[in-house]
Amino acid sequence: MKAILLVGGFGTRLRPLTLNTPKAVVPIFDRPFLHYQLDLLEQLPEIDEVILSLNYQPDAIERVAGDRRGNGPRIRYLVEPRPLGTGGAVKFAEPYLDDTVVVFNGDVLAGIDLRAVVDLHRSRGARATIVLTPVDNPSAYGLVETDAAGNVRAFREKPDPDEITCDTINAGIYVLEPGTFDRIPPGTKYSIERRYFPSLVERGETFVAYVERGYWIDIGTAAKYMQVHRDVMGGRCAAHPFAGRADNEPLVDTSAAVDRGVRIEAPCFVGAGARVAAGAAILANSVVGASAAVETEAVIDGAILWPDSAVGAGATVRDAIVGRGARVEAGAVVGPGSVLGDDSVVTAFSKV
Ligand code: GTP
Is 85 in the pocket of ligand 1 (CB under 6 A)? Predict the structure, then answer.
């Protein structure tokens, strides 16, 4: 069995973080996001190959996908000549598929039982199975209506308010039969959500829904990207590196240098080679990335510092994201919702 991870998108909503780092490999604590998806796929040992469907900055993804340890499935890199959209990307991978394929949007993380999804797909003899998740505000997503038997009946991408009749949305995780790809024209931009799924409904093919009520998030915006860190640190999402920890202590890499006299609140994460000077405060829900530096009297409060960034003496970074190699100089204040791109500089005593 094979899996396709759709990781070719531009990730525009997550700019500026995605200008140099494709969404699939943005760091989550100390690992690229993609590794969390590969963890999920380990539930299905019959998957012997994962196809990474690439377009935007493929080299950046190839560099980090390959450095995963262990005897996981083979990884095949398929680079589209131009963006083909989610459906076109699946069609592009068709020559490498044999039978049933698991497809993931490259920006979702879920506490899902993939075995149960595949079992449902097979027991129903489905041509396609889609995972659905309930959300509070379905209008921003693809709304999916089902009947009492769990068949998909309507597929509405980004519905108008009067079209909202249920709260289940497309979770971006599918099990598909390649025999259904006949309707996707090769080499053409084509959306799996807007065209392929509605076409299955129109043609009355067995198209089954699996509703997952456990943890689910897509990390497509800065707010969601921050949220996934909080959910892992807070135990709402069981994932590396916090899953299975018995204590509720700050998680500090053994190679980090945290001076005595630092105020450090759980939950938080301090990565490899990071340096935190005496008098600084790392408050709850903060992440200090690898080799980042926090100087004396600086306050990191619910913020995420990417690797190699630096926060100067007396500066405050609250509920914000500081990109790779960015510098917040002494006494500056970076406030809630700010996202600083890689290598940016907030000069001393500035307020953002
Ligand atoms: P935004 O620009 O912020 O909307 O992000 P995005 O480009 O990632 O688009 P979206 O979140 O809608 O895409 C869902 C998933 O499909 C993501 O994991 C994308 O990487 C992937 N994707 C989107 N378009 C393409 C494409 O043309 N080719 C491939 N291979 N993957 C794509």
Answer: yes
Q: Whose CA is nearest to atom 30 of ligand 1?
A: 8
Single-letter amino acid, residue 262: V
Cα gap 106→61, rounded to integer Å: 11
Asked whether 338 lines ligand 1 (CB < 6 A), one says: no
As a whole number, the mean pLDDT across the chain is 93
Distance, CA of 299 to CA of 308 (rounded, Å) = 17
Q: Determine the distance separating the centroid of ligand 1 and the alpha carbon of 116, expressed in angstroms.
A: 26
Q: 89 CB under 6 A from ligand 1? A: yes
The model's pTM: 0.93
Nearest CA among 234, 284, 193, 243 for reference residue 31: 243
Query: Largest Cα–Cα distance in the chain?
Result: 67
Does the domain at 2-222 match CATH 3.40.50.720? Answer given as no
Token pair 């500035």 in the structure block, residue: 350
Q: With contact defined as beta carbons under 8 Å apart, do 50 and 78 qualify?
A: no
Whether residue 86 has pLDDT greater than 80? yes
CA 245 vs. chain centroid, Å, equals 22
Binding site membership of 9 for ligand 1 (Cβ less than 6 Å): yes
Q: Which CATH superfamily is domain 247-346 in?
A: Hexapeptide repeat proteins (2.160.10.10)
Q: Which helix (H) or strand (E) holds 301?
A: strand 299-301
For 161-178, write each residue's pLDDT tens digit: 777 778 888 999 999 999
Domain ranges of the chain: 2-222, 247-346
Q: Is 6 in the pocket of ligand 1 (CB under 6 A)?
A: yes
Cα(251) to ligand 1 centroid in Å equals 32
